[in-house]
Design goal:
The chain has 338 residues and is α/β, with parallel strands linked by helices. The protein contains eleven helices and twelve strands. It has one domain: Alpha-Beta Barrel (TIM Barrel), CATH 3.20.20.70. Bound molecules: ligand PBG.
């Protein structure tokens, strides 16, 4: 799109519209609100809060703490919470079997949160990595991540989450074909109102480091044979953008209601292209490493914390995101005057 001809300086002085707060707010093109935020949260099986060392200000919450947080989200005008589990090592195995347990941590947390604050949407990650002893999102055989058997396990996990009351299933595993399989299974189970937000363009990223600390999925093996050391055979190459569009197109065709780009800030170009190309609700995930970077700099006094938080979240909205999944949600909502 080319701009209409502009009056030349000095007839046009762009600084005129920047001279005071009132005029800046009148001409502002995008406005961030708490309704743009999905609160990313980690729950654990025990009591009390356990701080996550690499994410200052974030703690693993007990189910009781998560319930209190849901009530707080409602008060703050945060529409939804994305929960991630920290599972005891003793419950993990190579197949992530505990993901299928209807009495597991996530189903229990979802039920309790929906009971206490039914107006707040709950989103669950569909992936095996919190439950596998090797930390991968899928099943492994001979050093390879198996696509189709993994999908079967994901469908079982997702139905357990949906039966517990989860509103949005968010497959983050990056197996091919999983969105279609989830949609078919939901229809078959009479759960047609459950939404799917696919991690459609999810990149193999260094910025997930603190998350693995938070959920205790540890370091991946050094592979490549029994235990591949990275997720590059299923998560996308960070160099690719055309492929991101293919991933999104497929997930929409398979029945995704909303799509996500992840990580967020290093991939704003993808967020913008996806939202402009598909005109579907497009979300960005400001991941653990982005949180950690901002907190590390502000903790050292190198950045102004409140401004850095709001500027980073505003960038997603400007790029075309319908909303952002972020660990800053409660802090940002308070800053926004909620
Ligand atoms: C796992 C999953 C990851 C995140 C969300 N779901 C990590 C990964 O793929 O290795 C990252 C979240 C974050 O870094 O905040 N399926």
């Amino acid at each position: 799109m080319s701009l209409p001809p502009l009056a030349p300086y000095p007839a046009l002085r762009l600084r005129r519209l920047r001279q005071a707060d009132w005029i800046r707010s009148l001409v502002r093109e995008t406005v961030l609100t708490p309704a743009d935020l999905i609160w990313s949260m980690v729950v654990h099986e025990g009591e009390g809060e356990i701080p996550v060392a690499s994410m200052p200000g974030v703690s693993r919450l007990s189910v009781k703490g998560a319930v209190a947080a849901a009530v707080e989200a409602r008060k703050l005008g945060i529409p939804a919470i994305a929960i991630f589990p920290h599972i005891d090592g003793a419950r993990k195995d190579a197949r992530g079997s505990h993901a299928a347990d209807p009495d597991g941590l996530i189903p229990r947390a979802v039920k309790a949160m929906k009971d206490a604050a039914p107006e707040v949407g709950i989103m669950c990650d569909v992936a095996l990595d919190p439950f596998t002893d090797h930390g991968h999102d899928g099943l492994i055989e001979n050093g390879r991540i198996l696509n189709d058997p993994t999908i079967e396990a994901l469908v079982t996990q997702a139905l357990v989450q949906a039966e517990a009351g989860c509103d949005i299933l968010a497959p983050s595993d990056m197996m091919d074909g999983r969105v279609g399989a989830l949609r078919t299974a939901l229809e078959g189970a009479g759960l047609q109102d459950v939404m799917i937000m696919s991690y459609a363009a999810k990149f193999a990223s260094a910025f997930y480091g603190p998350y693995r600390d938070a959920i205790g999925s540890g370091k991946l093996g050094s592979g490549p044979i029994e235990n591949p050391g990275d997720k590059k055979t299923y998560q996308m190459d960070s160099a690719n953008t055309e492929e991101a569009l293919r991933e999104v197109a497929l997930d929409i065709a398979e029945g995704a209601d909303m799509v996500m780009v992840k990580p967020g800030m290093p991939y704003l170009d993808i967020v913008q292209r996806v939202s402009e190309t598909f005109r579907m609700p497009t979300f960005a995930f400001q991941v653990s490493g982005e949180y950690a970077m901002i907190k590390a700099a502000t903790g050292n006094g190198w950045l102004d914390e409140n401004r850095a938080i709001l500027e980073s979240l505003g960038a997603f909205k400007r790029a075309g995101a319908a909303g952002t999944i972020t660990y800053f949600a409660p802090v940002a909502a308070r800053l926004l005057g909620a």
